[in-house]
Amino acid sequence: MEKLIGNKNIAVFISGRGTNLKALINFSKKTKRFNITSVVSDNKDAKGLTFVKKNKIKYLLVNYKNKSCSEKKIYNFIKKEKVSLVALAGFMRILSKKLIKKIKIPIVNIHPSLLPKYKGLNTHQRAIDNKEKYSGCTVHYVNERLDSGKVIMQKRVKILLSDNKKSLEKKILKEEHIIYPRVIDGLLN
Ligand code: GRF
């Protein structure tokens, strides 16, 4: 894994429930291997913001009514907070090529499938419908195309005949919470 030279401050971008964010916060508190100093949310009602407020992490809300204006705000926030890495965790927006280039630091994402299979949404149902034996999760670098950047790590999960979308999601999410902090730790330390 490629190592980054810089501080150990990261920004996490969320849109909703925020269980990956919570796993990252818990890992960082327990191990002190990196600090989550900043969070961006495009949803003021994101459940993940409760962990942010509880842990007194600085956050920026963007409404995306105007993408380029929201991205400018994101860029200024990231720059001001001097973070070394951006981790997308359920962030439901595609970052523009322009922003990715401008940010200059690595941007990573976690996706609930074994990429390049099942980019986009509804990954678990699609894997079940296609009678896949395995699915899983992938941590990858972010580029301007949806779920298409270079893969950093994957964890495979067996799909049982008894599995449905919910049970598969639960099993995969558990693995997401394990691999995402580890990958970020590996990149920063
Ligand atoms: C996760 O399944 C993640 O892989 C995907 O979006 C979901 C976010 O869940 N990108 P949470 O908000 O972290 O609970």
Strands, helices and their partners?
Blueprint: E1 9-14, H1 19-31, E2 35-41, H2 49-54, E3 58-61, H3 67-81, E4 85-88, H4 97-103, E5 107-111, H5 123-129, E6 134-141, E7 151-158, H6 165-188
Parallel strand pairs: 1-2, 1-4, 2-3, 4-5
Antiparallel strand pairs: 5-6, 6-7
Helix pairs in contact: 1-6
This protein binds 5-O-phosphono-beta-D-ribofuranosylamine.
5-O-phosphono-beta-D-ribofuranosylamine binds at residues 16-20, 48, 89-90, 110-112, 137, 173, 176.
Describe the structure.
38% of the residues lie in helices and 22% in strands. It has 6 helices and 7 strands. The chain is globular. 39% of the residues are buried. The mean pLDDT is 96. 5-O-phosphono-beta-D-ribofuranosylamine is lined by residues 16-20, 48, 89-90, 110-112, 137, 173, 176. Residues 16-20, 48, 89-90, 110-112, 137, 173, 176 line the site of 5-O-phosphono-beta-D-ribofuranosylamine (GRF).
